[in-house]
Amino acid sequence: MKKLLSILLALTVLLSLGASAFAGNDDTPDGRWLCSDIDGSVTDDTPAELKDDFHLYVNKDWFVNTPLPDGTLGYGTFEEMNDVLDERMLALIHDESLTGHDAELVHKLYRLASDWDYRDELGLEPAEKWMKAILSIDSLDALMSYLHSDENLTRSILFTSAVGADMLDPDVYTTLIVAPTLMLQDSAEYTERTEAGEQAYEKNRQISDYILRRLGLNEEEAAAAFDNAIAYETLLASHIQPQSAQYSPDYLMSILNYYDRDQLAELAGDFPILDLLTVVGNTSAKRFMVHEPAFIAALQDIITEENVPLIRDWLLVNNMIETGKRLDRETYDEVKAIESRLMGITGTSDDESIAVNTVKELLEVPMNKLYIQAYCNEEQREAVLDMVNEIRNSYYDMLNATDWLSEETRAAAIEKLDNLRIRAIYPDELPDWSDLDFKGIEEGGSLLDAEMAIGRYILENNAAKADTAVDKDAWDLMILPTVTANAAYNAQDNSINIFAGFLGGVFYGEDRSYEQNLGGMGFFIGHEIGHAFDTNGAQYDKDGAYADWWTDEDKSVFLERAAKLAAWYDGFIPFEGCEYSGQQVQTEAIADMGSMKCLLAIAAQKDDFDYDAFFRQFASLFRTKATLPAIIGNTAVDIHPMRYMRTNATLAQFQEFDDFYGIEEDDGMYIAPEERVAVW
Ligand SMILES: [Zn+2]
Question: On the CB side of 410, how many CA atoms lie within 13 Å of its CA?
Fold first, then answer.
């Protein structure tokens, strides 16, 4: 479901240098800073000088003394905070005095997830009926009737459809049509497999093989099913743009393809696209935005009688892999063991954390409501809004002082800042999920059936929004859950969203100093505002419409500056064999640097500002460690610079940092002023 939601909004969520300008580090592949994100890369003996590698200097003790928790592939400040949130949620889950429908749902799901005796009693049975239905598909007609039937576990329709704000008119919802998510994540992996692609392939192959054999297929059948699934995705992939296309400044323009019902039907030809949309509850939408028309046009030649065995096996593999976490202990443990072997994970998570994560994942909205009612208050919101205002004011100063902007573009940028929508901590109105229900243990329910019921409920609610008006004042907890250590900018309503999960831990606390809070949550507030003016956000106007408010000249200067930034990041080689893509991390790096610039401007206006506390807090935000396989997989898709870069590459752009610590030309943190790459 997360995959579906991530395409709903233009949402950006947090989480070449001349050699002469860089002192150089002989121990790293790029001569730059050590990639301390990799677990085990820092030991007692690793030199950590403040002036050479600030991130390592501040966090060395943490790197050396904090082992990866059992069962995890990565750990850092965000996970630390999420552990605190998990504990609070667990307390709510165990609080029998909580009443009401949300509490009932949460308690019921928690029992389905945590009662392993019950899960073992059900065994594989919850998955068997769904599998049987897929295996009976033996013709195109049978395929279509399966897709329309109640036996279609995930309401698969062979492409992905979701209803989201219209890119050109963000006051109305429109139906988006996109290609399905591929097992190897990126269509480019089907022609030339990278290490990350190989990793995803192996993981899916081994899990699929294990589950299908447990469900009764023999070795040969299970292997053939996976091969068929990949063969089908290979057919699809040749019509899907590679992931790298998304990082191009022209990408948004390329997905603006609008169709009415007749035009969409004509585009799809023999592929019954309108008919299939009814499977997800979208029965009468009038307007469609098709990201890749060439893909939709190609489906009629792929969804054929001849390819039915491939499509059937693709449905089988995809659906059954998803059930792996929802069945009995043996299945759960083996799926985890496969992931652990491939991803370098040691140990396993405890049962409480498995159960709380399941509740969080499937019932995020009811869980968020309970959390808000128990832990959030108006004072917190006021405190966050005060901080937002201070940082927004600094952005005004920055825009006013930017010498490469014409007055015309500057005025439009300021108007965009005027119109910034701010959501802080919790919505005024909480959503009503009273019409969702599923069977608990008493009624003989299963975790898998509960997941299916919740998934369908979300799909139907989403589809019902097609062509209706967007209420920009509303806060949809489904898309913007607040119980997470995070924040988000949504370009389609020009909003920053600061979540409750930041409060009461390492990011923000009433017991922490002003400088710590500014270098903590304040940094992310500035970062999210910065997304309004990165190469993606800058293509949307003050109301969230995809519209050009730049003069040609200003835009070309802006894009040149952004290209210089991307080229500089291209030079990083965090680990041997990594081809780091500056374009992939460009928007996030722009937002990081924009935020730091505004925070330093605020600092300059304060008497006795404690720069050391501020910089250290900032560096500690990004301490993290993960297994090398996890890093390889993540680097292929993450649009954020690696964490050690987020500290060092950001700070190295600023004279204030150099001046405060006396950084000079021979130091690793030094970048000559003319080689700095901050866009703003
Ligand atoms: Zn971001």
Answer: 14
Alpha carbon distance 610, 208 (integer Å): 54
Reading the block at residue 11, the tokens are: 């949402």
How far is ligand 1, taken at its centre, from the CA of residue 621, in Å? 14
If one counts every other C-beta atom within 10 angstroms of the C-beta of residue 239, the result is: 18
Residues 6+ apart with CB under 8 A from 560: none
| Pair of tokens at residue 633 | 């997989």
Q: Tell me if 21 sits within 8 A of 671, measured CB to CB.
A: yes
* Angle between helix 101-114 and helix 447-463 axes, rounded to 10 deg: 140
Ligand 1: centre distance to CA 11 (Å): 9
Query: Cβ neighbours of residue 318 under 8 Å, at least 6 residues apart?
Result: 154, 156, 183, 229
Structure tokens at 527: 């970062």
Ligand 1 midpoint to CA 587 (Å): 7
pLDDT tens for each residue of 261-304: 999 999 999 999 999 999 999 999 999 999 999 999 999 999 99
Question: How would you class 84 by CB atoms within 10 Å of its CB: exposed for 0-12, middle for 13-18, buried for 19 or more?
Answer: middle
225 contacts 317 by C-beta, under 8 angstroms: yes
Residue 414 CA, ligand 1 centroid: distance in Å:
20
Distance (angstroms) between ligand 1 centre and the Cα of 582 equals 15
Helix or strand or coil: residue 98?
Answer: coil
Ligand 1 center–CA 488 separation, angstroms: 7
- Span 239-262, pLDDT tens digits: 999 999 999 888 999 999 999 999
Taking alpha carbons only, the member of 13, 154, 31, 65 closest to residue 486 is 13
Q: Quote the ligand 1 centre to 52 CA distance (angstroms).
A: 26
Handedness of CA 208, 210, 215, 219 (dihedral sign): positive
The per-residue pLDDT of the chain, averaged, comes to: 95
Q: Are 133 and 155 in contact (CB under 8 A)?
A: no
Other beta carbons less than 10 A from residue 133's beta carbon: 17
Listed in sequence order, the residues at least 6 apart from 43 whose beta carbon sits closer than 8 Å to its beta carbon are 64
Ligand 1: centre distance to CA 14 (Å): 4
| Strands annotated E in 167-295 | 173-178, 258-259, 288-290
As a whole number of angstroms, the distance between CA 584 and CA 379 comes to: 38
Spacing, Cα 531 to ligand 1 middle (Å): 7
Let me know: does 591 contact 395? Beta carbons within 8 Å.
no
Whole-number Å distance, alpha carbon 379 to ligand 1 midpoint, is 26
